[in-house]
Amino acid sequence: MIDSQRPLDTLAEFGDASVRVLHRRGSLVGVPGRRGLSAWLYRRWGNRGNAIVTALGSFLAIAVSGTIAWVVSEPLVFPSLGATAFLCFETPLAEVASPRNTLVGHGTAIAAAALSLALFGLLGAPSAYVEGITAERVGAVALSVGLTGGVLRMLRSAHPPAGATTIIVSSGLLAEPSQMLSVAIGVVLLTLSCWLLNRAIGVPAPVWGAPA
Known about the structure:
By secondary structure, this protein is mainly alpha-helical. It has 10 helices and no strands.
């Protein structure tokens, strides 16, 4: 039975929206060991302070990745990274936001998409946005999503943004080998940026897996 404020706060950090309905002070409330700027913002402005953390962290993380992508002229930023950045700053100690789940999740998504493209004979084919939707493309996209979800469940490495990454690749948008490599590098860069930023503002983000 929950008999104190802290367990409820911590439960809200790891739970879903249905848990937070019981307690609406903000999802960063229950981060144990939080200090520095993150703790100060919450003490001063409550959930509005948490909103600043999420907004500022997401902005800076994507800005860093985007700047590097611009300098090297590679697609290191793509839509699903926005969702990953949001998770990393909104629920930094949750399993889905850990570096382990982020890297395993997107890595599995890329591999599943590559396999699906190969099975349906679409490696090197124009993307769905150029060629249009074909039966083979539908099969490749559906299979990549299914494989990603199933493998991540087996690995206990859920990371919802990976579902978008696998579609980005299997739809042909970033499907060349060099582009898939850029996607993987982009994930690593963003994961590192999020971790460093969280630590810099006083959030004890895990180095690898989520805390027990």
